[in-house]
């Protein structure tokens, strides 16, 4: 986050923000999948691309249409920054229009106390940053928060027989 906040170049900031989201998606996928996952993220593995990871997260019910749409938009903007052969910024009309497709989401607890951001009053870069940071934060906390709460309730009320494994699944993000 320090590197992103110091990044003056829009291309660098856009790629770093999207990479942080992808890394957070990797984390929640790894926490959700059971069994050997070592080959899934390899170069030719089924989860080697951001697009495939987004599809897998949706198929696993980790998030709904809003998060899925935001992730696809983040991926497209990241790809534009990474592959454009001409200089582009968040103010480039096509990039700015892509950012306007993003939806600001609620931040899961723990969160800072602040006024909710208003998309219409934000620059394209600020909106992209807000949505990327929120999704990354929510992915990091989604699995921990729900699993801890569910585990606490289950342990209070159940005697788990030997040989039985209880798996917890958090509610999906929007």
| Structural class assignment | mainly alpha
Work out the radius of gyration.
18 Å
Strands, total number: 0
Total domain units: 1
CATH architecture grouping: Up-down Bundle
- Give the % helix: 55-70%
- The topology string of helices and strands comes to HHHHHH
Number of helices: 6
Can you identify the CATH class? Mainly Alpha
Q: Report the mean per-residue pLDDT as an integer.
A: 87
In percent, how much strand structure appears in the residues?
A: under 5%
**CATH H level, superfamily name:** Nucleotidyltransferases  domain 2
- N/C terminus separation: 24 Å
Spans where pLDDT lies below 50 across 5 or more residues = none
The shape is: globular
Largest β sheet strand count, sense and barrel closure? none
Topology-level CATH name: Four Helix Bundle (Hemerythrin (Met), subunit A)
């Amino acid at each position: 986050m320090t590197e992103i906040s110091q990044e003056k170049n829009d291309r660098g900031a856009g790629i770093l923000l999207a990479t942080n989201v992808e890394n957070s998606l990797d984390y929640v996928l790894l926490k959700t999948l059971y069994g050997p996952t070592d080959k899934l993220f390899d170069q030719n593995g089924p989860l080697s691309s951001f697009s495939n990871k987004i599809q897998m997260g949706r198929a696993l019910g980790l998030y709904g249409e809003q998060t899925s749409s935001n992730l696809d938009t983040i991926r497209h903007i990241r790809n534009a920054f990474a592959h454009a052969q001409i200089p582009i910024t968040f103010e480039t009309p096509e990039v700015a229009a892509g950012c306007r497709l993003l939806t600001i989401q609620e931040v899961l607890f723990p969160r800072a106390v602040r006024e909710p951001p208003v998309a219409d009053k934000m620059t394209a870069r600020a909106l992209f940053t807000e949505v990327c940071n929120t999704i990354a934060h929510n992915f990091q906390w989604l699995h921990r928060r729900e699993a801890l709460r569910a585990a606490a309730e289950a342990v209070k009320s159940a005697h788990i027989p030997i040989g039985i494994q209880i798996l917890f699944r958090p509610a999906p993000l929007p």
